[in-house]
Amino acid sequence: MQLDGVLFLLMLNASVTESGINPWRSFLDSPSKAHSQECKALIREANRDTSRLKCDEIRNQLLQDGNLSRFQRLVESGNELSMDLCFQLHPVFRGYVADVEDFNISLGKSMKRNPSAFLSMLDRYQISEGGICDIVDNLGEDLEDNVKGQMRELRERIAVVNKIPKTLHPTQRATCLTCMRELLRALEDGGAKRNSY
Asked: pTM of the entire structure?
């Protein structure tokens, strides 16, 4: 067996904690602060691991048994604990472009369900202007070829963020609105999506 195969088997075997329980599955089955803390501990450990094996371990845990799609749906519902974990997973999933894009889609959808928490987390995790635009302008594959649907979704997102007082996370609020309004204008002016930041 080649070394790559051995490493893969080791990672699969390590995809649960010492207790034999996948912490992400536990969180998804019961999204509590205690389960969230277990996942955060894994994220912190992965961020310290320069070999990226811990990052791959978390990814494997999320890919098991449909956990990733369950996690994304929970984020999209506006569940604050899952939104917080999703923001923290960004650096762990660096290099997995499709996964990060899926997280951005889920976080963008969460904005409509829990805009105050969304803006708070943009502030807490110091998301850059470009990062904010990548999240709020990523409307998902289901709207990719539907310009009218994209415009409707952007208008809904703008309306939700507009309801948040200007004094709450003003920089993040303004950046979200600017990004979405620019994309909406570009779509209205010919349907062309503006370039990502």
From this structure: 0.85
